[in-house]
Amino acid sequence: MTLNQIQNAPTMPPAGELKSLSLIVLTNFFPAAHRAVRYAAELAAPLGAQLVLLHVREVSVLDGELLDQPSQERDGELLMAVQALADEVYVPTSIELVPDLQLSTAAALLHRYTPAVFVLGQAAEVEQDAPVSQAVLDVLRSGEFPLLIVPEAYRGPAVPTHALVAADGDPFRLEHPGPALQLLKQLEPRLTVATVSAAAEDAVCATALRQVHSAGLAATACHTDVEAIRHQSPVGGLLQAVAQTPADLLVLIARRHSFLSALFHRSVTSRLLRTCPVPMLLLPAAD
């Protein structure tokens, strides 16, 4: 186990060096974060991936108890608490303690580890949400970082076998897709491309399937098909698609200029996060 505290921007690995997969898990001491750690460990084990447990110091539930202690002693107590989480998993694990969660912090971690995803637990109850959750959603809306959101109540397999990809037929190109596509390729799930519109059209389905192929997502699957969902709401349509397929992973393309762009408004995103019964993989697109 290693501990890294971000001070300056980390150096990049040597050119041409192939890094193993890594998953950065945002941790705190709430049940949703514990669920995310367990899910990420179960996902990482068969892939030979490493975990990075990321703890944001300023939002720790231990802060009230440790506030009067010197900073070095407080960090030591936090490290021990996060290490206790790491001791529960049986995959290679590192720990990162950061003072706050900003875009620059996430970018530094992205360069240091080249993670396939950032993993976040979604609390089952609104009042159980930790403050870090909103900070992570702000990072998500930047459209720069891949994010895997795990519902606290999810009890399905950690290694997905059927992924549902939301698409609307508009062209897209994934932003720095390498590690995320490598993750999906190693999982090799069945892929269903779902289109959501008020009037389902064959042409939209065909175009959406073609765009998913062009982006490289279809190449990660053992089989690909398409399904049209007739619904006025993108959120309602996606929830309907999840309900009528055996999907155990919902894949969203994080674009701000599309039919699905409504998903990334604060209130609508919150609704989807709180109601989707399966983990969601959000992949940033280059608009």
From TrEMBL:
This is Universal stress protein. Coiled coil: none annotated. It comes from Hymenobacter jeollabukensis. It comes from the Bacteria. InterPro entries: Rossmann-like_a/b/a_fold, UspA. Residues 25-88, 216-283 form the UspA domain.
